[in-house]
Amino acid sequence: RPCLATARARGSGRGMSGCARGLVTAPPSVAARPALPRRPAFAATKGGTGGASRSSIRSTVPTRRKTARAGSRFKLPSSPRTRGVSLPPPRAMAEDASKTLDLPEDSLAPADSKWQRTVTRVSKAVVVIKTTGTRAFDTEAASSAYATGFVVDKARGILLTNRHVLRPGPVVAEAVFQNREEVPLRALYADPVHDFAFFRFDPNALAFHEAEEIALKPDGASVGLEVRVVGNDSGEKLSILSATLARLDRDAPKYGGKTYNDFNTFYVQAASGTKGGSSGSPVVDEHGDAVALNAGSKNKGSSAYYLPLHRVKRALELLKKCAPSVETKTTKKKEKEKKAKSLESCFDVDVPWHTPEVPRGTLQTTFAYRGFDDLRRMGLRLETEKALRDVQKRKGQNTPGVEGTGALAVEDTTPGGPCEDAGVKVGDVLVSVNDVFVTDFNRLESTLDDSVGKEVQLTLDRAGTEIKLSVIVQDLHVITPARFLEVSGGIVHALSYQQARNFALAAGSAYVAEPGYLFGLANVPKHAIIVALDNQKTPDLTAFAEAFGKLTRRVEASSNGETLKTSVKYFTRDERHRVKTSTFRAHFKWHPPPAFFDRDWRTGVWNKTLLSETTRDWLKSDEPREDDEDGDEKKAKTGAAREKRGEKKRPRDGVDGDETVAEMTVDDVIDENSPEDKPSVGPSSVSLAESVARALEPSLCVARCDIASVALADGVYSRSFEGNGLVLHHDPFGSGIGLVAVDRNTVPISSCDVLLTFAAYPHEIAGAVEFLHPTKNFALVSYDAKRMPEEAQKKVRAAACAVGAASAMRRGDALVLVGLNSQLRPMSRVATVADAATSAAVPSADIPRFRAVNEEVVRLDIDLGYDYGGVLADVATSDAESAKSHSEYLVKALWASYATPTSDGEVDSLVRGMPIGPALEASHRVLNWKKRNDAASAGASDEGNLTEKSVKLLDAEFEVVTLARAANLGVPRNWIDALLAKDPARKQALVVASTVAGTGAARTLEGGDVVLTAGPSPPPNETGEKNNVCVTFGDVEDAVSALASHTHALRMTVCRSGEILDVAVELSDASCLGTSRLTHWAGCILQNAHRPVAELGFAPTFTDPATGAETKLDVFISRWFHGSPAHRYGVYALHWVAEVNDRPTPSLDAFIEIVKHVADGEHVRLKLVSLQGRPKVLTVKLDTHYWPTWELRKREDGEWERVLL
């Protein structure tokens, strides 16, 4: 695997790429390690030596302290990570090889002294490269990593490293020299095929370090040569490993079927045991010259693979012509101390260079070096073999060290390439090019690079027959993508030659490097090839961009308020002969406008151009089409876009997947010979269940909730949810308002796209989140009933719900459980209430997210066997009642799904019955404010409207305990009797389990307080019992709701350690709108701390030095993105931002006011506070080119807008 140390999030799953659980540990404070923070390392996705390990061998350079006999070999103790690794003969292990080494020659043996001087000089040219790929591109994902590079031209500031370090896509990088001096890097050139690349830096930016350069000596490698590999260990220490070159003609290592692979070159093999972070290390001889470039190694074993330098040296000589050659500016030692900033020069990284011109030719053919024994079995003629053997005996014919025991054979040809078009076949043996024998890769590449655009004649041996073919040498840079289109968080570009080889396809197709939100909705996976979009073929990136531009115009021209539905056709590598079609709705509001990014080697930056500017001519010529009518076609319910944890389990309904939604009604499962309205004879549970299902079908729907990655808020654990919904209000011919109740494991936040699909009629309609209860497990979603088809308007009905005493459920009651399956068919059964007063008791998760608090639920003796949700309705108990009309079947509860954390950090779901009463009450409030807004001018909200959009809460979580335990907590016997008399069936009491930080409850109540009464003390009833005694959550809620709107204090009686106390608890008004503002800064999402964070019991504050007043900190990091400055510098989720540049940030407005004055490329100093209250300080270098600052805001009308700051 490539020796690249990557910093990535681990195992959070289901869209938790940036949230807290399993994230990379943040680096220590800047004060502790100002130049280079410590980070863990992870294995790279390519093959080779994966993530940099702390077990990587430290520097073995001898020190002054003599601890071993000269010439002895030192070996690390055996361990799982270092077993069998031999080191060169040192005097001792250096504690910190980053320090300058200055040793007297007489303290070392002669051989050691020479290597010591070599390593001392070489180490001044070796740097740690901190690289961040800002976007997924080609074979690479967006990520941050450590690697190695070394100076090959100190005058011009040119660094050599691996191609997989520089990455094929946009990259931001810095180099850290051995004295811990950091300089910015810019990408200069990357070879399209071979694993080498160049960065450039400003040599005059080094104020305290005299950089050395390492000469490239390609012909210096030979079998048996002793070398040293000088690299870094996880970006912290210098690692110097010894090796002996064993082979110079090894095949290029293969890293995987969908990733980068080098080819058409030999590799050098040795047993150096290089580890992560050593990618790009120089392999030097005793003179300090580089004879190879470290590239990869085996995971299991100590074999390492080095890239020969023949083509590298050629590229370096051509790159030197891109900039003038000047001497590095030097000063005296005493003058260096006065250097406080970098000097301006023509090599400043912001100054463009000339465009690099490195000709690279290709036949789009992969060759393999095969021995003559193998070639003879393939039919190679003896006279041809003799000619090839004889020519390889000539000096200079082959690469030095490569024995003349074989020849090049065609291993693969790429469709659409010059060789395949010319008739070259797999197995052909290459004899000559233009009548010149070509027997190794170096001569082949040299010939092709000098013949770009020209015709060459190939002489091949095909099973004993000589074949001569004329082939045009293609420009390799032309088929190497240098542009991508970013659309809705996804990346699409032309299929590269690398992936064309992997996929056996012609280069240039529309390739999905990252699906993003839009294509994720269509279940288009990573590495897919898009062949058509919006019914327009997309053979290449230009055609795809044109189709996408037309689609954006259709969306802008849409006047019906509905998101447009369109289709995409694609295929994958594993199923390349099967084109799949998927539909999705075009949502463009969450992400920046579609834009092209084009690579510019002169500046090392990818320049951004809006798609609207590029395709203006296309858009003008395109006529808007009529919006698609909503039909029978449904969205795909499975695929790669739906994460495993976010998908709720569905029943096995045994229905053929080809059946349409329109056919899947309850009528299909009813016996045709059974009269539809015939009353049941006897208490038949089957007929009752079917009758209730038939009655409730017009009121049921499936809600699909999709969340863009840029809109993930409040610790939500997935990007896709689905569940049942119940229509509570449907008025297509009046106000046009429709309301659906769902659980909050189906619609968890407000920044999402909701799609409602009704069971009564095959119709999809977009929904808007109107109400999110802060403590109860339900949400209300509205839809525009007037925009539904006429037939759907008639068939969809609001459910009849039980209210008052009719809504009560008791143990032993028979109810009918009805829910829709994935095919929108009702499933139902009769069940018995096992417990009508069970506490939901959802535990807190590692990542603070919504959970139901103080909620009683219903448990059944048996359910439908899956956690997909539904409703609970009453059951007719006599023959007469069994013939009730549809409206007489009353819904008593939602069969709601609750997200519960598991012991291993995953998320599971359980379903319970949630009484319908709170959702009904909330629906009345939503209807009131929506009707008021419709009547008011410009949608203004008055004070009453604001009051309706919040709920008054007692900010404490209660635990249900038995009366016996309450007595153990010190509750007097008379109060035990009062609690028992209040509810003899429950025999319980409420104990304060926790309080919400920063609230009145936190200041007044304490954990372990036993609640006795709540609210004013009314006169005792006829039996002398107190009416305000509390034994259930409902009792406390009734006491809170009984208070006047202007009253914000609740009188309570509690028992604390055996003492009866009367307290007044301050209440709070909690918003029911959810988080309405998300700030994107440096690649992380900032928001106001949501309620579940405060429910953990801690909220940091800062004290105003002027007034002495304490202010609650309310800037909370909820997520971060791969490849961003936040990822690079460790600004991870679940932290408050307390200060920016030593200025407090109590609010998002205060934060924005500070950071808006920070320019691109500047560093800011952040003080963060963790959930445990632990502070840390770090710095972040801004990158506003790839990661600008912007916000998502929810307007008064409920729509979301994107605002660039």
- What class would the helix/strand composition place it in? alpha+beta
Coarse morphology: elongated
Terminal residue distance: 42 Å
Number of strands: 60
Integer-rounded radius of gyration = 35 Å
**How would you state the average pLDDT, rounded?**
81
Q: Work out the helicity level.
A: 10-25%
> What share of residues are in beta strands?
25-35%
Q: Helix tally?
A: 24
Give start-end ranges of low-pLDDT stretches: 6-109, 327-345, 618-685, 877-887, 937-941
Major pleated sheet: 9 strands, antiparallel
What does this structure look like?
With 1205 residues, the chain is α+β, with helices and mostly antiparallel strands. The chain is built from 24 helices and 60 strands. The protein is elongated.
Short description:
This protein has 1205 residues and is an alpha+beta fold. 16% of the residues lie in helices and 31% in strands.
